[in-house]
Amino acid sequence: MKKSILKYVLIFTVCFSLNSCYTYSFSVGEGAQKGVETSKMNLYLIGGLAPVSISEPAKLANGATDYDVTIKHTFVDGLINILSGSLVSPTTTIVTK
Fold first, then answer.
1. What is the pTM of this model?
2. How is the chain split among helix, strand and coil, in percent rounded to 5?
3. What is the C-alpha to C-alpha distance for residues 73 and 83, in angstroms, rounded to an integer?
4. What is the rounded CA–CA span in Å between residue 25 and residue 17?
């Protein structure tokens, strides 16, 4: 019985330690000039396989031609992912003008 529990604990630990927490950043034009940030949450289902709501960085920039975009998992995104059992996998898009 103890070996079975240990096996499941080990599998659970490996699964959480190997999950993909990424940050993706890129610049448009000359990059951020003023430091004004706008953010929006993106929603994906089934571990990120099915997009539900994806933000568009150009719309978040509100007409600016020079801005930086960062797409990442925040603490809240990870918490939602864990509580939903990876059924809902959000990310956050941050646009800095």
1. 0.73
2. 30, 35, 35
3. 15
4. 23
